[in-house]
Amino acid sequence: MSKYPLANVHPDARIGNNVVIEPFATVQADVVIDDNSWVGPNAILWDGTRLGKNVKVYPGASVSSVPQDLKFAGEKTETYIGDNTVIREAVTISRGTNDKFKTVIGKNCLLMAYVHVAHDCIIGNNCILVNAVQVAGHVTIDDWAIIGGASALHQFVKVGSHVMVSGGSLVRKDVPPYTKVAREPLSYAGINTIGLRRRGFTSEKVNEIQEIYRYIFLKGLNNSKAIDLVEHEVPASAERDYIVEFIRTSERGIVKGYEGAD
Fold first, then answer.
1. Of the candidates 138, 161, 181, which is a domain's last residue?
2. Which positions are annotated as active-site residues?
3. What is the pLDDT of residues 149-180, one digit of tens each?
4. pTM of the complete model
5. Residue 220 sits in which domain range?
6. Which residues pair with 111 in a beta bridge?
7. pLDDT at 212 over 90
8. Centroid of chain to Cα 79
9. Does residue 96 share a domain with residue 200?
10. C-alpha radius of gyration, the chain, whole number
């Protein structure tokens, strides 16, 4: 008898210990599922899927499907899902193209129902994508970011760590780390103070980050002048250097500020 009654599991799929694959799920040949993972009914794991440990894939989800990119020529690519990540109902994740040859979702992430993550995206650890977030190709989202429901992210956008994006946002520009962004067009709305404190940032560190963003958004300076002043006037730290490098290397440009941001 099949170990997975009524599931369509290819015999070449590599499946770890204590894995549950529910009826009517489909697992193709070039799939790896690590220990203690769960695949719900009617979910499909296409060729190139690589699930870590204790991953949960809910009904109707589609992982590692062929990219929605007309340039895709059938090259062998993959999709990596990190340990303890939860993929809820009807989430769709495309595998990579010959740009990165992979799409990556990190560890301990939550992708709520109807999220789409396109080809060649790199999403860090501990991220939350709320219901119906739509992520275009080649997007990078760093650790601990939260993207509010029904937001849409433009191709090649970068979102920094510990960012909070308001629900329903159109993200056309890069979002620097530790910030909140809201309104239309999307704008700086202060630093993510609540999120940072929940994750153990001290009041001193929060104040340091806030002071850096005063240079960038509240002093009427262009970005180049602002980050030059930050480097000269704010003591070096991992957070300062990350912010400076993020802004300096931004290819799409960062979001703008607005009056009243703290």
1. 138
2. 119-120, 137
3. 999 999 999 999 999 999 999 999 999 999 99
4. 0.96
5. 196-248
6. 87, 129
7. yes
8. 13
9. no
10. 20
